[in-house]
Amino acid sequence: MAELAQAAEATATARLSLLRRVAIVPAFNEEQSVVRVIDELRAFDPELDVVVVDDGSRDRTAGVAAARGAHVLRLPFNLGIGGAVQTGFRYAFEKGYELAIRVDGDGQHDPAELAALVEPVLDGRADIAVGSRFAGPSAGYRSSRSRRVGITILARTVSLLVRQRVTDPTSGFQALNRYAIALFAADYPHDYPEVEATVMLFKHKLRLVEVPVQMRERSAGRSSIGALASVYYMVKVLLAVLVSISRRNAVPLEER
Amino acid sequence: MTPLPISIAAGVASFVLLVVVLGLIRSRRLRERYALLWLLTGLVMLALSLWRGGLNTVAGWFGIRTYPPAALFAIAALFVILVLLHYSTVISKLSDQNTILAQRLALLEQELRAGGER
Fold this sequence. Notes:
CATH topology of chain A: Spore Coat Polysaccharide Biosynthesis Protein SpsA, Chain A
Number of strands of chain A: 7
Structural class of chain B: mainly alpha
Radius of gyration of chain A: 17 Å
Oligomer: heterodimer
CATH class of chain A: Alpha Beta
Largest interface: A-B, 13 and 16 residues
Largest sheet of chain B: none
Low-confidence stretches of chain B: none
Mean pLDDT of chain A: 89
Radius of gyration of chain B: 23 Å
Distance between the termini of chain B: 81 Å
Low-confidence stretches of chain A: none
Strand content of chain A: 5-15%
Order of helices and strands of chain A: HEHEHEHEHEHEHHEH
Largest sheet of chain A: 7 strands, mixed
CATH superfamily of chain A: Spore Coat Polysaccharide Biosynthesis Protein SpsA, Chain A
Helix content of chain B: over 70%
Shape of chain A: globular
């Protein structure tokens, strides 16, 4: 079994090396963890281009990331996670990347899981693969009760709307092919984007596959979402999701 | 008790407000985060217009005994003030960001021109 898994991983790496690929790392005040994220991405794939989107950090995130050899896009002020990630998608689209991996700068996504994550996209089974904390058998992820309840409500709502079981609609650990990059470069939701983006994918008939992953506790810094803010986000995201299902489709960016 | 025509007119107005706000979100002319306060306004106004006993109770809290719709107008005014205040903070933030953008653009342009001369 282990040999089989190893062989599968080897072919995944070989197929990966044929593609122009980039890792998009949104980071807001993550000077403590962003270097480790970059190093781990390189350990997974030494040829991987890494672009760190510094979302108006007040610490040395941009400096330490650039010193580690990452491309750094420095936003002049904080756009929020949606605006930051879309900057990365725009970059990936303009520079002609065929595969984009999205990994958060706080270190909660383990690049060791990337081999499994990119698999469905490399196979052509999915336009976007999303790492899910709750799809696997062992739910090792610790999280506050209220947050889990919130995620469950969102997961149920989204699953109903997109007619597919989605267990972790807020996960930002993703691998995307060029179609998905072009769509999100043109249009990406604001400040808590993954849930609404899932509905967008469905409306554009792009295929989403969830891959079970483990996520780590944040290695440094604090989550950007507090208690009262989560209630606000829940309401806002539910509203956005319900409205977006009836909305006219955006047009993906044209290939030039 | 609130005169029935006032309840009906206020209810219709609140409903129209809700529909217009939702339509604006749908056509992407209004972002969700700026719509929430409007939706809350519409929902509260709709509830108080249709639930006439409730409006009487609320009016009673403020010592309004003779003409309950006065409470409806006061609450509507309060919400409008909240929305305006919210927008003032949004405009201030936008104006700050605009300044930063203009400064960054000027620096970039200077750098490009300096690069071209070399």
